[in-house]
Amino acid sequence: MNVRRLVVLVVLGAGLPALMLAQKREDFLSIQRDVAQVQDQLKQMQASQDQKMDAIQNALKQALEESAKLSAALAVLQTNINDRLADQQAKVVAPVATLGSKVDELATDTRAVRENVADLGARLGKLDNKLEDISSAVRTLNTPTSVAPPPPAGAPPGTAAGPPPPPGVSADSLWQNALRDRSSGKDELAMNEFSDFVKYFPMSENAPIAQYYIGDLYDRAKQYEDAVQAFDAVLERYPENSRTPDALYMKGVDLMKAGRRTDSATEFKDFLERYPTHALAPKAQAHLKELGVGAAKPAAPRAKKKAN
Question: Half-sphere exposure of residue 52, counting CA atoms within 13 Å on the CB side?
């Protein structure tokens, strides 16, 4: 029994190394197969990477070629632009320089003319002042000190010649000063000058216009009753003139502003009867509607408005 067991153990001891060697060989072959498979995968990955790198390199090469072409085209374009600008500058600079010289010469000539005109104006002003002084002196010598000169034949009532003006004051200078002060907003000064004009030169053709401007200045100052009296003076003191329609219309406007609606409506009706085709007629009709009064039917124009 013991001998048999010993034999079995001997047999097993002899076959075990062979079995172990066979197992190790199989494991080694499996590892070789795995390594070969990994190597194949690495080769495939390397090939794919190589293909992608080639594609990237080709795209980069094309981009560089396109960039080079674009740079060349831009260089050509820049050269053309520079050439054209240089050509245009060469064509323009000379005429502009010539024009600048001519402008400078013209400015010099204009300055000289302006200086000559200013000198001439100063001389004329001095001459005008001397003439005004002489005229004022002559009027003062020829005018009685206690009795005012009678109005000329055919003059309307209330238009007698006024007192002599102060020395150095002429109708033209007083008129121009009044107009200038009115247009520059110096209403109080203009009011005094227009009043002096009407006072000293009532026979002048500008007298009714000056009287109208007095009413206009009162209207600006919102002194409506004074404005009504001033416009009424245009209608009463002077015959039909260029400002008669305007004075009649503005009299109606200031009566309306003063709250005298009935009197205002009467003036607007009178205006439409006398001047039915005047430019202010639509406004007069609108004011009558505003006052709640119908427009009067046109009638034959009267020679002069009757006094109120």
Answer: 6
